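Take a record:
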Amino acid sequence: MTTSDCKTWVILGGGTAGWMAAAALARFFGSHPTSIVLLESEQLGSVGVGEATVPVLRKFNDYLGINEHDFVRQTAGSFKLGIEFCDWLTPGSRYFHGFGDFGAPHAGVAAHQLWLRLRATGDPSALLDYSFPAQAAWANRFAPPPEDDRLAAVAAFDYAYHFDAARYAAVLRDYAQARGATRIEGVVDQVKLAPGGNIQTLHLADGRTVDGDFFIDCSGFASRLLGDALGVAYRDWSEWLPCDRALAVGCKRREPLTPYTRATAREAGWQWRLPLQHRVGNGYVYASAFTDDASAERLLLQNLESEPLHEARKLRFTTGHRQVFWQNNCVALGLAAGFLEPLESTSIQLIQTGLLRFLQFLPAGPDNSVRAAEYNRITANEYARLRDFLILHYCTTARSDTEFWRYCQRQLPPDSLAHKIEVFKATGQVPMYAEESYSEASWVSIFIGQQVLPTSYSAAADFLPLESVRQLMQQRKQAIAQVVKRMPEHQQYLSHTCPAPPDSSL
């Protein structure tokens, strides 16, 4: 089979994953004579937990040609400068993972290394004093990065979104169908394989059949094609990430409209808060080994800022991923491929990167084993790097007030993460592996926020005159404050550029 021979692409499952796949394929193939069929069932519903992203989604929307303001308006969305972590180190602690660095390098020395040198002299400044997204977020202000090159050294940052995932799926559905994709309503009750092991036909409960050349499994945790039909096993990471349940509920929003996600540590996990224009998305991710479902729901509802808008939706999961992601003529995306808890809002990122990577390795020729192997290798590395980033939040906690947090303290991290921690403690530098999703600045944000403090710093920082370093960092701090002060409030920016229609209230 060559790419040109692959005439019919069948996507099993809708939601964000399915319609992202349909939209991307429709965009990629354009006027090429290709059939894109998406099979979904309204009666199966969708998970609908993830409503926050990381900045890479902007690139996906740009690829499709979706206007940012239209996207935010249609999804009742808001902007996101990063994630605030409350009570993770100890009760009462707070830090921020912003989508940006701590200033441009000076003479080849990273800004956080300059801060470490000043800290060694007794300077009381916090690292987040030099984080533009953190300072803007805590002032509840937002505007896109300034185009003035003179401000790039202090106001260089990225941003993402909070939005209603179901509304985003609807935007993508309209996009894909306008470009020729076909939607079929139905439930698959049998998958027929060809003699060589490829998927050949999907049999529906009402007797219809759907044939295809290549299949994309977006069927959620069930993984009907890759996991069920093709028998690809699941790699379980719950020994390091023991949370296995989530509750999600919306509530009315109170002012102000904050441009960031909040993750608050709780007794047996953590609670998320995602502000949209007309409501707030909330949820509790927890480990069932350390609490029961009823207690978890009570805790979540007690910590809402207003009355819930509906009953809490329940979700069960096991952190990990399929042993491979592309097998025979099937690739899995989203929950069908794996799941990492939404602590760093990476679920949609993994759909996007997996999808765009697949477009780079499209089947071509009768044997695609090398393409599939390389796709699987890169994707597995990406999952592992994200896994380590999540584990870092847990394994470095100083909390010992509940059994859950004591368990997290006792767990030994994977060797790849243990090496990162060891090197950072000794040098203040972060070893960066292949397929990293996060920059060194992001890792530093978590290390310093969790009070994993280096015993030393880059020797190059000592080659710079101390007073020059002190003056430079002070100027950065002042420049950040000046630029933030001139930014509009988040609500003001949204109201001016992309207000959601009044009927978007959920």
User: Anything to note?
Assistant: The first strand starts at residue 8 and ends at 12.
